[in-house]
Amino acid sequence: MSAAVDAAVDTAVKAQFPLLQRSVHGHPIVYLDSAASSQKPAAVLDAMDDYYRTINANVHRGAYEIAAAATERMESARADIARFISAPSANEIVFTKNATESMNLVARSWGGSNLGSADAIVLTEMEHHANIVPWHILAAERGFEIRWIPITDDGCLDLTDLDRLLDGAKLLSVTAMSNVLGTLNPIPRLAAAAHDAGALISVDASQYVPHLPTDVGALGADFMVFTGHKMCGPTGVGVLWARSELLEAMPPFLGGGEMILDVTKEGFKPNEIPHKFEAGTPPIAEIVGLGAAVRYLEGLGMDAVRAHEVSLTGYALRTLTDRHGDDITVHGPSEPAQRGGVLSFVYRDVHPHDISQVLDQSGVCVRAGHHCAKPLMRCLGVSATTRASLYVYNDTSDVDSLAEALDEVGALFGR
Amino acid sequence: MAGLEDLYREIILDHYRNPRNRGELECPPAHRSEGFNPLCGDEVVLTFEMDGDTVTDLRVGGQGCSISQASASMMSSAVIGKSAIEIRGLTRAFKAMMSIYEESIGGDGSEATDEDAATSNGGVLRLGDLEALRGVVKFPVRIKCATLGWNTLASGLDETAGAG
After folding, report:
1. pLDDT, tens digit, for every residue of B73-123?
2. CA distance A206 to A128
3. SS3 content of chain A, % helix, strand, coil (to 5)
């Protein structure tokens, strides 16, 4: 069983991640928090190191050798990322600081010029705060209505009233995969419904792009945001993809250098896309690192990454249930094919902070808390969950370590 | 290396499993104070009755991790029957114990005040069972859990004093 699961990708993958070779509290590290941030393969670390050691210079406008090389390497990373999500053009890839900034860009720039007091947008109860708070901020200024798609008991979107919710709305902004439940949402169906209602669809793909083959055209997205550090890339770089005609029509987000064609005492003329949205010196090394990350993932093959995670998620659901029975409840869809490798669970009545503290002593890294999704926590009727999340470098031994370490929790807190 | 036994002392687990003074008093006449730890969702709801300057009764409500709930339970046992000035002294002593700088700055009452005098005996603070929480300092992310109840009571007493 274990061998069959692990065979879905090369079992040597873990060896390509330097951090995963270390120990914690005398145990080999068991890293199960990739939904918060992934580890980085040597290929990414080397690409960033090589950039700094050999061609570090500011990009664009530099006539000298290394400035041109830095520009070329950054722009080729943009092309790599466009290819990775099947975007029609690299000019549709806007670099930001993270997915949160990307979503704020959509809210501030598109929302700021399209949403007024008579308008409405639609969110869902399973959104991350990054896809809630920017809209709250804008709604407080503009007075538009925010409607919410509810969730079902098994952690899926309840689409019973979808058409009514979308009626008259200008935007549906929805996560492709829940960072708490692992639920994969039916984005193509949602996109079609939104478009039929005359609305655009913005997709938070922060948990999707790192784990599944992504084609923005097949998804039917108008906007899509994701972040580098959850997909084997560095922190400090995120992406907004949008259809070029939308980007062309949107006003700039941040003002400064690089985002202009001309500046006078009277005003400015914005640059072409995507540079119109990239004010100031970009995170060049991080963009180079993200380019290396997507090439690394392409080398593994995203179909193989997904197949590995489906197998491992199924193994994890079976192993945790077999070993801990009624002591454990895993939130979200029970069928691995309908979810990603994000396992939020409740273990007896032990508080998630205590669970994660005890697991840490065995080198098992999981996250405890509200996972930046407090409206969802209220729907689930809990204040916090413990979340173990899987990625391509995890294997059945990691799942076994989690299941075994939970015995320690039971021993300490058993009544 | 700090071990789990430093954090989850038996007396702490006992207060977590069998919380003392659990519940809620009717307000008024009781006073109410709520505290939240927004990072982890811990919540402590204190209701307490005063007779003059003395806390005559106190109940602990809310929910959260073992450290936050056990600490609030232990606090309730320590403060009932004490005056506000004594409680402020205990709070200072407890928070000094919870300071990760404690050893380097000598936070054991070296800056003695009238409040400290009320709870000290020859310069030695009498934290009693509360000493069991000393190990939390070795787990810095949990310090806020341990101090939540004390901070909630301190702000409740401040409001009571402010209300006259």
Report:
1. 999 999 999 999 999 989 988 888 888 654 433 344 444 444 444 444 434
2. 10
3. 45, 20, 35
- Among candidate residues B139, B41, B6, B143, the one with its CA nearest the CA of residue A352: B41
Nearest to A369 among B4, B17, B41 (CB): B41
Virtual torsion, Cα A361, A412, B45, B87, nearest 10 deg:
-80
ipTM surpassing 0.90, yes or no?
A: no
A219-A220-A223-A225 Cα dihedral, nearest 10 degrees: 0
Q: CB of A236 within 8 A of CB of A283?
A: yes
Q: Do B40 and A25 touch (CB under 8 A)?
A: no
Q: Among all residues of A, which ones are annotated catalytic?
A: 372
pLDDT in tens, A49-81: 999 999 999 998 778 999 999 999 999 999 999
* A183 burial level (CB within 10 Å; 0-12, 13-18, 19+): buried
Calculate the alpha carbon distances from B66 to A351, B25, B127 in Å: 7, 23, 20
DSSP codes, A90-152: GGGEEEESSHHHHHHHIIIIIIHHH--TT-EEEEETT--GGGTHHHHHHHHHH--EEEEE-B-
Q: Which of A368, A365, A402, A359 is nearest to A387 (CA)?
A: A368
3-state SS, one letter per residue, for A156-190? CECCCCHHHHHCCCCEEEEECECCCCCEECCHHHH
A182 vs A397: CA distance, rounded Å = 21
How far is residue A399's CA from residue A61's CA, in Å, rounded to a whole number? 50
Q: Is A250 helix (H, G, I), strand (E, B) or coil?
A: coil
Please tell me what DSSP assigns to residue A9.
Answer: S
Task: Read off the pTM.
Answer: 0.90
Q: What are the chain B neighbours of A369 within 8 Å (beta carbons)?
A: 39-41
pLDDT digits (tens, 9 = 90+) for A259-309: 989 999 999 999 999 999 999 999 999 999 999 999 999 999 999 999 999
Residues B67 and B11: beta-carbon distance below 8 Å: no
Could you give the CA distance from residue A164 to residue A157 in angstroms, rounded to a whole number? 15
Nearest alpha-carbon partner for A199 in A232, A161, A173 = A173
Using an 8 Å CB-CB cutoff, list chain A residues near B63. 383
